[in-house]
Design a protein that fits this description.
By secondary structure, this protein is α+β, with helices and mostly antiparallel strands. The chain is built from ten helices and 20 strands. The chain has a five-stranded mixed β-sheet with strand order 3-2-1-6-13, sandwiched between helices. A five-stranded mixed β-sheet has the order 16-15-14-19-20, with helices on both faces. Strands 7-12-9-10 form a four-stranded antiparallel β-sheet. Helix 6 packs across helix 7, helix 6 runs antiparallel to helix 8 and helix 8 runs parallel beside helix 9. It is globular and about 85 Å long. It binds adenosine-5'-triphosphate and magnesium ion. The site of magnesium ion has 5 residues, from loops.
């Protein structure tokens, strides 16, 4: 991740609700926070750019706020990718090293991984991550790093995360148009997992559910490796639109009511509590029972966790999650959601929220660094393109930012994973 910015690293998360840019510095003592910016997301929905100019403006706003705090320009960034277009699939492949066992080198590992990833993909999909689960040496499974070991046959199991090429490319284009070159992409829950999951949970088997605004992303770890990724097309915005319709109030008011008075368990709300609910148009606001708010939210919460349970069951992952389910993401802040999750999933559930705004972005960086050093060769790297010009005016650090060149289209390399050189 070395780039023109020396030891600075930036991650950008273009979420459905908020866009976050975060800058950190790599120091001998680890990552040091240097600045972050948050802007309301406009023009992006459920991981897909729907209005490019608005999305670009949100990214610029978040980036400029981060730059102002850090006192340095953002030139390159990692970006988060998520949404219903992301899919995960397990694959398996291997090579024979001859009739007698011989030492396994980097080339052999690369060839085995090549076999594992050689499954037909539709033309409109690209690989985001190739995550090794285990290597199998002469039928001996469970090897984490076969480099230097002896075998006559080397096999590998990998989890491949794929995304719709156009959806990913449009996020890259928006970030490019905001004047930032994209170094790499990270599946958002993979980054979140680095922050909120403990090693013992990953070993035992755990599902992290990132309940965002537009969707809920799932990632299951088993024996320390990613076993499954999936997306459920329900997020916090569905709760808000249910309230908007059910209470006949504008979406913005429904969002406020959800955050202040919302609860996913009706019986946790004392009878007699009332909420002032603004009406649409010029009708006067009304006083409605707070329980009505929960009566609208509870079925949606149940539906979300029933879909999660069915999704995990159908993929054979439900029984893998012996350490339970961890909920994160903005929508998991709804009071009572924990109780609904436990009653539907019948697993131990815990909540774990990012520690601060922009934490997803820190996690993205940490994940990228961790994977770079451990099995970075299995991450698809994107080819570098010339950095496009920042379009914003009046920016304080503009002198440091090149203004020439047009918006670049980052060349998608569809999962080539350069092995580190021996040097
Ligand atoms: N206190 C709260 N109670 C209930 N819901 C909340 C609360 N705070 C935030 N939310 C909801 O969380 C959602 C935003 O979550 P988050 O910030 O994780 O989304 P995002 O990362 O921008 O979106 P996505 O991951 O879907 O692209 C919104 O639907 C918002 O209404
Ligand atoms: Mg998110």
């Amino acid at each position: 991740m070395a780039n023109q910015q020396g030891s600075f690293l930036t991650a950008i998360d273009v979420g459905s609700a908020k866009t976050v840019a975060l800058m950190v510095e790599m120091t001998d003592g680890g990552l040091r926070y240097r600045g972050h910016g948050v802007a309301e997301s406009r023009g992006s929905r459920k991981g897909v750019i729907v209005e490019l100019d608005k999305a670009v403006a949100s990214i610029q706003k978040a980036v400029e706020s981060a730059e102002d705090i850090a006192g340095a320009p953002v030139e390159h960034a990692l970006i988060g990718v998520g949404g219903a277009h992301v899919r995960g699939v397990n694959s398996h492949g291997g090579i024979s090293l001859g009739t007698r066992p011989r030492e396994i080198g980097r080339d052999e590992i690369k060839q085995a991984v090549d076999r594992a990833r050689a499954i037909p993909l539709p033309a409109d999909r690209e690989i985001l991550h190739l995550l090794p689960q285990e290597f199998i040496l002469d039928e001996q499974a469970g090897v984490h790093d076969p480099l230097g070991m002896m075998a006559a046959r080397l096999e590998v199991r990998v989890h491949m995360v794929t995304a719709a090429t156009s959806a990913t490319q449009n996020v890259i284009t928006a970030v490019n148009k905001a004047g930032v070159h994209v170094d790499d992409t990270v599946f958002e829950p993979l980054a979140a997992a680095d922050s909120v999951l403990r090693n013992d949970e990953r070993e035992m088997g755990v599902c992290l559910a990132d309940i965002g605004a537009g969707s809920t992303e799932l990632i299951v770890f088993q024996q320390g490796a990613v076993a499954y990724t999936g997306v459920i097309p329900i997020g916090g915005d569905h709760f808000t639109s249910d309230l908007s319709v059910g209470l006949c109030t504008p979406l913005a008011e429904a969002e406020k009511i959800k955050k202040i008075y919302g609860n996913a368990i009706v019986t946790l709300i004392p009878e007699g509590n009332e909420v002032e609910v603004p009406s649409v148009g010029d009708r006067p606001s009304r006083l409605l029972p707070q329980r009505l708010v929960a009566e609208i939210l509870e079925p949606r919460a149940r539906e979300l966790f029933e879909m999660m349970r069915d999704n995990l069951r159908q993929s054979g992952m439900f029984d893998v999650c012996l350490a339970g389910i961890v909920l994160t993401g903005g929508a998991s802040r709804l009071p009572g959601i924990f109780d609904v999750a436990e009653s539907v999933l019948r697993r131990s559930v815990r909540l774990s929220w990012p520690r601060a705004h922009g934490q997803d972005a820190v996690d993205a960086i940490r994940t990228r660094i961790r994977n770079s050093s451990r099995h970075g060769q299995l991450w698809p790297a994107r080819a570098c393109s010339p950095r496009p010009a920042r379009r914003s005016l009046g920016h304080k650090i503009e002198s440091a930012v090149s203004r020439k060149g047009s918006v670049s289209r980052v060349q998608l390399t569809s999962a080539h994973y350069p092995l580190p050189t021996d040097s």
